[in-house]
Amino acid sequence: MKKILFVAATLLALISTSCSNNGGIDVNDPKEYCWKVSISATYMGIEQSSDVYVWADGADVQEAIEEAKEELKVFEAMGGSGNVTAVKSNLSTEESCYQANEQE
Fold first, then answer.
1. 53 in helix, strand or coil?
2. pTM (2 d.p.)
3. Do 55 and 33 contact (CB within 8 A), yes or no?
4. Cα distance between residue 91 and residue 11, in whole Å
5. Could you report the per-residue pLDDT of 68-96, keeping only the tens digit for each?
6. Which residue of 29, 38, 64, 95 sits 20 to 30 Å from the alpha carbon of 73, by its own alpha carbon?
7. What's the CA gap between 90 and 67, in Å, rounded?
């Protein structure tokens, strides 16, 4: 269980600090949006999932997802599995985006 929490925290940190093309991510769009990034992981039959909202442009979100997927490869080598996805949320301001994290 501690390993799952560690991996989830690591992935959230990667996404929060830098933010596969998941549907809707346009790396050439310089405009920033509020993205809902979902991370799920399973280890020894225990499932964990978490959502984090980030204010970023498409290139930053794409980069963060790629980094998170690289981290998941290490986790998968230990016998776990995981997934990272990002979709634009309906939140339109940076402030409301980060406030959504406090409500989660």
1. strand
2. 0.72
3. yes
4. 22
5. 888 888 878 888 899 999 999 999 999 99
6. 29
7. 25
Instruction: At 38, give phi and psi (nearest 5°).
Output: -110, 130
Q: What are phi and psi of 60, to 5 degrees?
A: -65, -40
Amino acid letter, residue 102: E
The residues, any chain, with a CB within 8 Å of residue 1's CB and separated by 6 or more, are: 43, 46
Sheet holding 33-43, edge to edge: 46-56, 33-43, 81-88
Could you tell me how many residues make up the chain? 104
Over residues 24-63, the pLDDT tens digits come to 788 888 999 999 999 898 988 889 899 999 999 999 999 9
Q: What is the pairing mode between strands 46-56 and 81-88?
A: unpaired
User: Of 14, 21, 81, whose CA–CA distance to 49 is shortest?
Assistant: 81
Between CA 28 and CA 32 the distance in angstroms is 11
